[in-house]
Amino acid sequence: MSVSGKRIRVWDLPTRLFHWLLATCVIGAFVCIKVGGLWVDYHFLFGYAALSLILFRLIWGIVGPPRARFINFVRGPATVWAYLRGRLPDQRGHSPLGALSVVAMLLAFSFQTVSGLFTNDDIMSEGPLVARISKETSDWISSLHHSNEWIMIGLVGLHIAAVAYYVLVQRKRIVTAMITGDDTALPGDTRESTPDNASVRVRGLVVALVSVGIVWSIVRFGPGGF
Questions:
Q1: What does the pLDDT profile of the chain (226 residues) look like in tens digits?
Q2: Distance CA 13, CA 56 (A)
Q3: Which residues cross the membrane (predicted)?
Q4: Phi and psi of 186, rounded to 5°?
Q5: The pTM is what?
């Protein structure tokens, strides 16, 4: 059983890198599309990088360490309700409510990056798979792509607000934990440190290379590819 005060590894390195790299890509893509002009090309590049990261996280949620696997932290409505009522012991890592936030953001970002492959701006930029569909369908997807931006902004805003609440009100070091990977164990948390050795990191690298390769193949060999 974990003892309060004991330092444990909560997040493995691949998961931590995913988190910060995705945040960088989302911010970069948002800034570039708002600046416009030739910066739209960089918007697409950030989008391809984000799609690679999301694909990595989906695979890592199956083959990664226990704390990174969806089956170990995504819970049903009953568990979320029990957590909101304070009926569950506090644990390091994703809370049942935080897990829903992770799933919601992954869904929103997945739609945004995949739909971006089929979008056009009626001027000079279009996704690499636009030629696979009709102009009307591309216009429709482009409209959904723009509308989903507000959903992402809302989800990111809620995420930042939740982090601020945990850090400023509950005094939890969740940002530090996502940087260093370590946190202090709580009395009710019986889980051990997550594996984060060379084997885990090599596995993460392999998954990352596979994810990048898949996205690169789509972009490179699509009708509108490089």
A1: 444 567 889 999 999 999 999 999 999 999 999 998 889 999 999 999 999 999 999 999 999 999 899 998 888 888 777 777 776 666 677 777 788 889 999 999 999 999 999 999 888 889 999 999 999 999 999 999 999 999 999 999 999 998 898 889 878 888 999 999 998 876 666 667 899 999 999 999 999 999 999 999 999 876 555 4
A2: 13
A3: 20-39, 45-63, 97-118, 150-169, 200-219
A4: -105, 155
A5: 0.90
